[in-house]
Amino acid sequence: MRYWTxxxxxxxxxxxGEVPASEIASRIGRTEAAVRQRAKELGLPSAKSRWTRFxxxxxxxxxxxxxxxxxxEKVGRSEMAVRKRAALLxxxxxxxxxxxxxxxxSEDQRIRELWGRQPSRLIADELDRNPAVIRQRARDxxxxxxxxxxxxxxxxxxxxxxx
Length: 163
What we know:
The structure is a single chain. This protein has three domains: 1-47; 51-97; 105-156. Helix content is 57%, strand content 0%. It is built from ten helices and no strands. It has helices at 6-15, 21-28, 32-41, 53-62, 68-75, 79-88, 105-114, 120-127, 131-140, 148-156. The radius of gyration is 27 Å and the shape is elongated.
């Protein structure tokens, strides 16, 4: 265990509440956990009880460009905390939701052809869609997966493998 120097303690006290603990840790060469523990021992207010000017500046700068999740990771707060703070600051949201792409008949046909024969991620790659969206579309089309065991049994029985 390394003892805290007077300079480190003064730096911590001066920066605490103004910049994130991770930044303080980086500046003084300590782990973030050590910085938080020492701040607690010194009786400094909880770092997460109020937003710092530094965090507000990050939020203001990136709110219109980044998803809330990414900002949350950057400032070390929850996504919900970031959303609430942005609402409190009345920040405009410039990120537009991508419009949902309509399904084309040829895409439906391709899903019908490949469903149960290829993993949804491969179908998604081919159709330039998300695998979860492909699975949902297959459900919407009334398709179900046939397991390899079921396929073998159908083949033994001489039945068509149409599904």
